[in-house]
Amino acid sequence: MGNSVMHKIIILAVVLLCQNLFAAEQAEDDRDDEWENSFNDQPVIPEIVYPEWFKKSFLELPEDIKEAVDEGKKGIIVYFGQKHCAYCQALIDKDFGQKDIEAYTRQNFDVIPINIWGSNDVTTPDGQIMTEREFALRENANFTPSLIFYDAQGKQALMLRGFYPPYKFRAAMEYVERGYYKEEFLRDYMLRADPPPKFEISDMNHEDFFIPPPFALDRSHFPAQEPLLVFFEQQDCHACDVLHSAPLEFEETKKLLTHFEVVQLDMNSDVPVITPDGQRITAKQWAEQLNLFYAPTLIAFDERGHEIIRIDSVAHVYRLKSVLEFIVRKTYITTPDFMTWRFDSIFGGKKLPPIEARDDRNNNVDDASQGSR
After folding, report:
1. How many other C-beta atoms can be found within 10 angstroms of the C-beta atom of residue 34?
2. Which of 325, 323, 286, 288 is nearest to 305 (CA)?
């Protein structure tokens, strides 16, 4: 009898423990959901402070790669950011702020910050010398934060533009750290790690401005009257649900969308599509061809079917509105780089603000040569 009672007590304790663990996980999920839905992506005040473990570098990246490899790491991550970027703050708080992500990053990579408006000289992994801003422009770091992963040979393994939630960010780091980038696209790795559920297309969020099928989007023979905006989404997608809340409910965004032909596609479906360049394929095949790995991804095409810009990371009210303005105003024709246009719109065409000297450049040379953090 005593053994039976003890057995029941143990079972009850295990059940309670599991319930508590589930409740804790659910609470964490709820906090993430609440954060995503309440995320304010306007410029943050005060300026962003980098984690203390980011590497203090002279921006001689070939040397930084060598030092990282000598320490047993896989390579470096070059972080392109700016002082008041809400998405940069989200990356630091929500991704690098996770203890497991911080530990995993520090074990496998050195992180080197680049100010996208900076005038400090950078020696790039391929041996070019240019300013921070020129480097950011060359690498098309349109959305901050942008991260470029360089492997031990100084080759670009992956580039991420924008902020991704922690589970996606972890997977992207593993993709590089475990060498999968040598064998497959990130999209294929993500699908293999987290296969999408199968639903009917009618289960996705609907908007009145979406053009119904058939999706005849060909613009290669005759130009259209308006630019095209394609929403690549999928079922059971929390990030898609967030996009259809505040960002698409913002009145200024709704007005801007009236200047587009807007189409929604399930990126995992076999729905037939005639693409802007005239191909007859399925939505899934098109998404594969475009190497899309994040839902939702928004891609804009001009009247002749040429891609203008894409948003393949988290985008809330401020960023989405800015991208739509960039297209509607036809600014991309004279200023094809979104980053340059954003600078001009913020600073009114003024010269770049003066860049203060980095404190770490005044450090003892011996400290800096050892990659002190």
Report:
1. 10
2. 286
The number of angstroms, rounded, from the C-alpha of 135 to the middle of its chain's C-alpha atoms is 19
- CA 310, CA 227: separation in Å to the nearest integer? 13
User: Is residue 117 within 8 Å of 353, Cβ to Cβ?
Assistant: yes
Query: Are 173 and 205 part of one and the same domain?
Result: no
Inform me whether the pLDDT recorded for 361 exceeds 70.
no
Distance CA 356, CA 341 (A): 23
Closest to 326 measured CA to CA, from 303, 304, 300: 300
The pLDDT of residue 5: 52
**Residue 154 sits in a domain of what CATH number?**
3.40.30.10
Based on the domain organization, do 187 and 208 belong to the same domain? no
Check: pTM over 0.85? Answer yes or no: no
Two structure tokens written together for 193: 């790690």
Write down the pLDDT at residue 356. 40
Q: Where does residue 58 fall: left (phi above 0), alpha (psi -120 to 50 degrees), or beta otherwise?
A: alpha
Cβ neighbours of residue 335 closer than 8 Å, sequence gap 6 or more: 341, 344
* Residue 299, C-beta contacts closer than 8 angstroms, at least 6 positions apart: 229, 230, 232, 290, 307, 309, 310, 311
Is residue 76's pLDDT more than 80? yes
pLDDT in tens, 191-234: 877 665 554 444 789 899 999 999 999 999 999 999 999 999 99
Q: How many helices (H) and strands (E) does the chain have?
A: 15, 13
The neighbouring-strand residues paired with 240 are: none
Q: Which domain holds residue 330?
A: 201-334
Task: Let me know whether 217 and 179 are in one domain.
Answer: no
Q: Is residue 157 a contact partner of residue 75, using CB atoms and an 8 Å limit?
A: yes
State how far the Cα of 102 lies from the Cα of 77, in Å rounded to an integer: 13
The better pLDDT of the pair 29, 286 is held by 286
Three-state SS for 185? coil
Tell me: do 232 and 183 sit in the same domain: no
d(CA 200, CA 266): 9
**Residue 197 pLDDT:** 55
The answer to whether the beta carbons of residues 126 and 60 sit under 8 Å apart is no
Q: Give the pair of three-digit tokens for residue 53.
A: 């473990």
How far from chain centre, in Å, is Cα 370? 31
240 and 157 in a common domain: no
